[in-house]
Design goal:
By secondary structure, the protein is α/β, with parallel strands linked by helices. Helix content is about 25%, strand content about 15%. InterPro entries: His_Pase_superF_clade-1, His_PPase_superfam, PGM_Phosphatase.
């Protein structure tokens, strides 16, 4: 008998309204920008053309919940919330990040960067990987034989991908393949992961958009 196929689409939220350019992390009150809402709506239509999606879950943060909302409306699903999909903890949260005009202009902050393998400035990569794997496995089990969508954040999604692909956690954040409103899709045959795909249903972020977490 052929094992049933299940896909979990792990989506990054859309662009966030962040005029001061801080690392907002897990701070409350950071919502999608107008462009971000457009990204979420476009992604919702994209999901509508895929195999039946029967489960939708999002990080508890406002930007993830707002990204999930048009998907829920388009597909007729409720939004479940899973705290394990939340943004990674970061000691620079609420600050701008740079050498000349941000947190790194203060030598007292430099010690936080002493170990990029862990990393020393925030939640350990292995802890991020463990909770993200738990969240996507729960979503997979809820959508056996069909598909699920999990809305999360850039670093947790990227650490998840590095983990399932057996790659090193040490990386250049500027080179993460995890654009705004992008979708990293994990497909299982039974409990065996058989493929990882990547898509940008809302298109690549333009030069005028804001990156963020």
């Amino acid at each position: 008998m052929t094992a049933e196929t299940t896909t979990v689409h792990v989506m990054r939220h859309g662009e966030v309204h962040n005029p001061t350019g801080v690392l907002y992390g897990r701070l409350p009150g950071f919502h999608l920008s107008e462009a971000g809402h457009g990204m979420a709506a476009t992604a919702a239509q994209w999901f509508g053309h895929h195999r039946p999606i029967t489960h939708l879950v999002a990080s508890p943060l406002q930007r993830a919940q707002e990204t999930a909302a048009p998907i829920a409306s388009t597909l007729g699903l409720d939004i479940a919330t899973d705290d394990r999909l939340v943004e990674a903890g970061n000691q620079f949260e609420g600050q701008t990040f740079g050498v000349g005009d941000g947190a790194l202009k203060h030598p007292a902050n430099w010690w936080r960067l002493r170990n990029p393998f862990r990393p020393s400035w925030g939640e350990p990569y292995r802890e991020i990987a463990e909770r993200m794997l738990g969240a996507v496995h729960t979503a997979r089990d809820a959508a056996r034989g069909s598909a699920a969508v999990c809305v999360s954040h850039q670093l947790p999604i990227w650490v998840l991908r590095l983990t399932v692909e057996g790659r090193s956690y040490l990386h250049d954040p500027r080179r993460r393949q995890c654009g705004l409103a992008s979708v990293t899709s994990l497909t299982w045959a039974g409990d065996e992961l058989v493929r990882v795909d990547y898509a940008e249903p809302a298109g690549p972020a333009g030069k005028g958009t804001v990156g963020g977490a």
